[in-house]
């Protein structure tokens, strides 16, 4: 199994139960505590989905402040755990895009968890509240012009509540129910290997971030709802959630950024429709399945799921009168359709391990989505990549990765672009799927400090070859960056 980095190893159960139902002496371990990295959008490698994973002991040496003068042990005795993570990023467009140059973005996140068993003897309950402070400028919007943000932290500036929920386990946590304001992308559509990469599409993909209201209940937003997780048998997990589909309560198209519409994260919107999402997860060990029980474990997780949204969604080609949106005399208001849907699959699979106990591993991931092409700008999306753990001599905690992704436009979005070019109402030209490749290296400098230099290359920046405002060609984008993450 991959040797876990300090910032990850303390609060594993929240995702690990989704990856592999934890078993110890025939009994399921507690499942409700979230990962520290659940308050981050991407860029931190999550634990390998190894069957039989044992939750490691808490270790204050993996945090910069350690025991904080005895405050952490005292709080822990009363069931309270506080985690703080700070992210600093510097990005630059070296060539192509809209204009070259650097930008800075950063984020500080704090999460407070209250364990009801330690607090007052109530078993398997957890209260969680987290907050974000996001700062800096958007390299993607100001200098690159891409549809896939170079980083999950490339978001609107705000100081906001992130999540606020109560989680209760039943039947030794084989059944787990969460109620409150929740973020779906910490548990659904997750690829643990894709989460290592910084480009935002490897977290919450275009198929949801562009096709749902305000991107849906995803970082840095949450929405009122409930999530149920059930472990009917070892290696199988079934999850479902029902939430509001519009976390900021605004219209689908707006000149006001979602973080400006709800700058504090306390809107708790009930406007719009209802979002239903479900996922089935199967954990398996291919090596032991095909090569025998003595072979080095090659764990993997395979997921199938889908979502259904009862809201109203804009047609990508026709206006409210049934005419073309690209017509000069169009109303400018799209025709709206009821309901929306998407299906998806995710596969994470380790394909090589040096030996049974070795942290030297190679893993693959693939994720694909599909949905309706009339009301969604992106109808199909696919991503894939490979990660190499512990292969740098003397750097057993470091990871190298390379990944690729693209999103294909729906038939009506393509038709609208052709209409606009034919009628002369746009300078952007035909839509072309934007493709991006990312190569990155994550160095665990200390148990609490991670430095991650990053390279990204974009083809068909913004989904076209021309700037829609000027008609000038947009060159393929070359982006360099570095992410520094500190756990306090």
Polypeptide structure, described:
- With about 500 residues, the chain is mostly beta strands.
- The protein has one domain (about 15-485): Carbohydrate-selective porin OprB (Porin).
- The chain has helices at about 15-20, 70-75, 115-120, 140-145, 205-210, 260, 285-290, 410-425; strands at about 25, 25-30, 80-95, 100-115, 125-135, 160-170, 175-180, 225-235, 235-245, 275-285, 300-320, 335-355, 360-370, 380-390, 400-410, 435-445, 450-460, 475-485.
- It is globular and about 65 Å long.
- The two termini are about 25 Å apart.
- Belongs to the OprB family.
- It comes from Gluconacetobacter tumulisoli.
- One of its GO terms (molecular function) is porin activity.
- One of its GO terms (biological process) is carbohydrate transport.
CATH topology: Porin
Describe the strand arrangement of the main beta sheet, using strand numbers: 3-4-5-6-7-8-9-10-11-12-13-14-15-16-17-18
Give the fraction of residues assigned to helices: 10-25%
Strand tally is 18
